[in-house]
Amino acid sequence: MSGTGKPSVHPAAQQIARLYHEHAAVWHELRDTSLFERPWLDAFRAALPVEGAARILDLGCGSGLPVAAEMIVRGHRITGLDAAPAIVASARARFPAQEWRVGDMRVPALHGPFDGIIAWHSFFHLPPDDQRGMFGTFARLAAPRAALIFTSGPAGGEAIGRFQGEALYHASLDPEEYRALLSAHGFVVLDHRAEDPACGGATVWLAKRA
């Protein structure tokens, strides 16, 4: 417990950007690009408020593979944001016609509105209080009826994995709190599955701005 009365956050939470930056090439080699996420991405696209090219924000975009690449192939316009400069450089090299920025999703220097927002396997690297604060950011950047998709953990708490021999931070809120935050910020949950076996065990939220 910290001196402020708030639960302390594991120090690995401050190392996410550095880890991905320093090991960008390894991360790219390890990232499964078989698009097991396709059913969820199809549902996300179906929830977009416009026909044809939509403006999509990818928070924690990585190298653009495979999630942003799937959106690009489908004709959408991507703005990608990631805190690891080496990974953003990789995305720029692969997809130079799209917009890629280095930055922190918690304080994005971006101007919406976006027709869709993706935070796939990125949002869950934020500490719980930062995740709570992100819902105001989602609402600020989302166009009316915009689609939002993100992954979380199945239950509240921290989980510390390993990447290149170092601690890799993950955190989650309880599902009931995610639902309450989405509702409070004008989003309706379209679908939610915990540890979806058809999606590599990902816990996925799909919502739509009212």
TrEMBL record:
The keyword Nucleus does not apply. The keyword Transferase applies. One of its GO terms (biological process) is methylation. It comes from Paracoccus cavernae. Keywords: Methyltransferase, Transferase. Its EC number is 2.1.-.-. The lineage of its organism: Bacteria, Pseudomonadati, Pseudomonadota, Alphaproteobacteria, Rhodobacterales. One of its GO terms (molecular function) is methyltransferase activity. It holds the Pfam family Methyltransf_25. It is an enzyme of class 2 (transferase). This is Class I SAM-dependent methyltransferase. Residues 56-144 form the Methyltransferase domain.
